[in-house]
TrEMBL record, chain A:
Membrane topology according to the record: Multi-pass membrane protein
GO biological process: aerobic electron transport chain
Family: Belongs to the cytochrome ubiquinol oxidase subunit 1 family.
Keyword flag Transport: yes
Subcellular localization, as worded in the UniProt entry: Cell membrane
One GO MF term: heme binding
Protein name: Cytochrome ubiquinol oxidase subunit I
The keyword RNA-binding appears for this protein: no
Source species taxonomy: Bacteria, Bacillati, Bacillota, Bacilli, Bacillales
Main location: membrane
Annotated source species: Halobacillus locisalis
GO CC, alphabetical: cytochrome complex; plasma membrane
Annotated TM spans: 15-38, 58-80, 86-114, 126-149, 181-202, 318-344, 356-383, 403-429
TrEMBL record, chain B:
Cross-referenced InterPro entries: Cyt-d_oxidase_su2
Primary subcellular site in the record, as a coarse category: membrane
Organism: Halobacillus locisalis
Organism phylogeny: Bacteria, Bacillati, Bacillota, Bacilli, Bacillales
Highest taxon listed in the record's lineage: Bacteria
GO CC, alphabetical: plasma membrane
Membrane topology: Multi-pass membrane protein
The protein's name: Cytochrome d ubiquinol oxidase subunit II
Length: 443, 341
């Protein structure tokens, strides 16, 4: 395989690995804050225990997240030096700011983790706030660079390929920055909410647990369901805006996402299926008339550009339609699950039956799949460009021949670490079950 | 001062900070591993881990700050640096990841503690050696251009004595600095068994590290004659550095009124100054090149968003000051933390 493909594979899998941990790292501190605050209000020690146990899990996840984040941050320079040459000139600012966000997170995470018992309550909550703030700011700032790659701004190209007229702030506030950043943050919150719901539901499905333990998990599930509903709604509303930005700034990407070949007014929305080049349409899809035009710009007669507007060599791979559908599909299913769960609790005021708990169990992994599909869609959907219409991936990548060997090395590392994290989490929480902590609290 | 000079000075300062923090971090991991066997009559491992647990994340961030600063201050250097450093830096990332994750996992899986601890201790020992081995690459003689594309000659590098002297330099520095620091830290915790253990190691590591450092300069490749000349021209600063080494090293022997030997705080401060002087003097001798003879500091630099970036640095560190103070109080001063079992 050629070096460019290897470089993309190595970087893509590094990012795909990191994003699992980074997503949890952004969402979990917020859940911990919620538990801390509920403890403060309700004076119920279950919430304190929740915060403590989530923090343990967070510490394990964070270790991998920091390590993999360091890999991604350094590797992007190693594998795509020509890209970073432009980044360094135009969009360096968010990278610089991100380090400080990262530093705030690191300092206060140590404080919260190792000094919580020596801090007054107020300072303890300030610490976990700082952790969450650092994590969210990191995500927002890194997403800024990603958004800029999709909708570059703040510079001009000279005929010889150089960069001139750099406007740092125009690059920083590039057209898709705000929507993309919110999308990453909301979807991270939502994913963590559903992961917590998964774990709590899994425990509640067990038959012989004590009433105290059952109550503990029910409280965790309730937090997760409410937070999950709010954040999944926020994700979808903002996701809609993100798609409208695509219509405005990246019409080619939107065309590929929807599998639209011919420029059309009153364009239908194709759900499912796959985009077929021969048939020039999405096969085996459910079509909703006019819906795509309406979604793109709130009017049924909106003209949506089709892929044939551009030469085929500028198309992203057609399978991005599937990635896009996986992301949107899972997002929609999760909203339904969360709405149903809240309805069940508030209106019917009934216990969750096992089949609903089973649905919750599926929610966490599904949300993570949606995150992965979303990132793959955003990055693959930008191809063949690294910076849309400015720098091709083939020109951005390294020419060094050693990438193949590194690919094998790092894939081995990631697979090992995925198993190791799962194993360590399982091992730790098996040795320190909720029942044991509850007994300790009671005595 | 020119903007590019300001940038390289900031970069070099970050390198200094990271080399100190990294030495403490990886060194503490190594000492923690060596003394983890509870039969040995010393608390050295406990003390090392007390420092390591809250501090490693911050140390790691400084590594990232350094890399990001290289790319954002010197974007025109990325192509050359990335091409020649791809493999060594990627290997470093691999080791760093193993080290970080295993070190944290260790606290959550008692049954596998020994395996995890040895893996993270050993990878932590190798890491600074690997990172320091990047230094000779920039001195000249190991990089060539084929069809306009830079290549690092691994064969020549691997068979050159200077690589191994650099590695020895990295190792002895890491262990010396961490031993002296942990000695001071043990004193703060009033843990005398650990104090004596680290003092014992500082005593032999001090002369070894300085000897290795001087010998390393002697092994520079012929192509690096330019920097040797600059180093000789900077003899005053290197001389001062040795003076501070002597002050710090002597402080290890000074007797307190109660008969205990060693003014630990004086030793730590002197030795940090020793390395500070040496690193800045080396950095100034390295000018004007980032990579000899292909890339100078001015060639790599961009002024496009330099001043906004300076402001970000000022604001960023400003915001963090209260955090650092709190951190210092909680983990380096608080007896409740230092003495807790």
């Amino acid at each position: 395989m050629d070096v460019v493909v290897m470089a993309r594979a190595l970087f893509g899998s590094s990012l795909g690995f990191h994003i699992i941990y980074a997503t949890i790292g952004v969402g979990l501190p917020v859940m911990i804050i919620i538990a801390e605050i509920l403890h403060l209000i309700k004076k119920d020690s279950d919430y304190a225990l929740m915060a403590r146990r989530w923090t343990k899990g967070f510490a394990i996840i964070l270790a991998v997240s920091i390590a993999s984040g360091t890999i991604v941050g350094v590797m992007i320079s190693l594998l795509f030096p020509n890209f970073m040459e432009i980044v360094g000139q135009v969009i360096a600012l968010p990278f610089q700011m991100e380090i400080f966000a990262f530093l705030i997170e690191a300092v206060f995470m140590s404080i919260y983790l190792y000094a919580a018992d020596r801090l007054p309550t107020k300072l303890r909550i300030v610490s976990i706030f700082a952790v969450a703030l650092g994590a969210i700011a990191s995500a927002v700032l890194i997403t800024d660079v990603h958004a800029w790659m999709n909708t570059p701004a703040g510079f001009r190209l000279t005929p010889d390929g150089g960069i001139t007229d750099v406007d740092t702030w125009a690059a920083f506030f590039n057209p898709s920055f705000v929507t993309s950043a919110l999308h990453v943050v909301f979807s991270a919150f939502m994913t963590v909410a559903f992961i917590i719901a998964s774990i709590a539901a899994l425990r509640l499905l067990k038959r012989n647990i004590s009433t105290e333990e059952r109550n503990y998990h029910k409280k965790a599930l309730t937090i997760a369901i409410y937070f999950g509903l709010i954040t999944s709604l926020a994700t979808s509303i903002n996701g809609h805006e993100t798609a409208q930005k695509l219509h405005e700034y990246n019409p080619r990407k939107l065309a590929a996402a929807e599998g639209l070949f011919e420029t059309t007014r009153y364009a239908p929305l194709s759900i499912g299926g796959y985009a077929s080049l021969e048939d020039q349409r999405v096969k085996y899809a459910i079509e909703i008339p006019y819906a795509l035009s309406f979604l793109a710009a709130d009017r049924f007669d909106t003209e949506v550009k089709g892929l044939n507007e551009w030469p085929q060599e500028l198309w992203p791979p057609l399978y991005v339609h599937i990635l896009f559908n996986v992301m949107v599909g899972i997002g929609s299913v999760l909203i339904v699950i969360a709405m149903f769960a809240v309805f069940w609790k508030l209106v019917l005021k009934k216990e969750y039956p096992p089949w609903m708990l089973a649905l919750f169990v599926a929610g966490g992994p599904l949300a993570m799949i949606a995150i992965e599909a979303g990132w793959c869609f955003s990055c693959i959907g930008r191809q063949p460009w690294t910076i849309t219409d400015v720098l091709r991936t083939g020109e951005a990548a390294t020419k060094s021949g050693s990438v193949g060997f590194l690919f094998v090395l790092f894939i081995t590392l990631y697979v090992t670490l995925l198993f190791a994290t799962a194993f360590i989490l399982k091992f730790y929480f098996k040795r320190n079950p909720v029942s044991k902590d509850l007994e300790k609290g009671a005595s | 001062m020119e903007a590019s000079s300001v940038a390289i000075t900031i970069l070099w300062s970050l390198l200094f900070v990271y080399s100190m923090l990294g030495s403490l971090d990886f060194g503490a991991g190594f000492w923690g591993m060596v003394y983890s066997n509870e039969n040995k009559n010393t608390n050295a491992s406990v003390i090392a881990n007390k420092f390591l647990s809250p501090a490693w994340e911050i140390t790691n961030v400084f590594l990232v700050i350094f890399v990001v600063s290289v790319v954002t201050f010197f974007p025109f250097a990325t192509t050359l640096l990335s091409s020649i450093l791809l493999v060594p830096v990627a290997l470093g990332l691999f080791l760093l990841t193993v080290r970080t994750t295993f070190m944290v996992f260790e606290h959550y899986a008692q049954r596998f503690r020994t395996l995890l601890r040895i893996t993270s201790g050993v990878t932590g020992l190798i890491l600074p050696a690997l990172l320091v081995s990047i230094l000779p690459i920039t001195l000249g003689g190991f990089v060539d251009f084929e069809n306009d594309y830079p290549r690092l000659h691994y064969g020549e590098l691997m068979t050159h004595p200077t690589l191994y002297m650099h590695i020895a330099f990295g190792l002895s520095t890491e262990l010396f600095i961490s031993a002296v620091f942990l000695m001071d830290y043990a004193k703060e915790a009033e843990d005398w068994s650990a104090y004596h253990t680290f003092r014992k190691h500082a005593l032999w590591l001090g002369p070894v590290s300085i000897l290795v450092a001087v010998l390393t300069i002697g092994t520079f490749p012929v192509e690096a004659d330019w920097i040797v000349q600059n180093i000789e021209a900077n003899w005053l600063w290197f001389g001062l550095s040795i003076v501070f080494f002597l002050i710090g090293y002597s402080a290890l022997f000074l007797k307190h009124r109660d008969g205990k030997r060693g003014f630990a705080r004086l030793a730590v401060v002197s030795i940090i100054i020793q390395y500070g002087l040496a690193i800045y003097a080396y950095g100034s001798a390295h000018l004007p090149y980032l990579v000899y003879p292909d890339l100078t500091v001015a060639d790599g630099f961009t002024s496009a968003s330099f001043y906004p970036m300076l402001i970000i640095y000022a604001i960023g560190f400003g915001i963090l000051i209260p955090g650092f103070i709190l951190f210092w109080k909680l983990f380096l001063k608080d007896r409740r933390y230092l003495k807790q079992e």
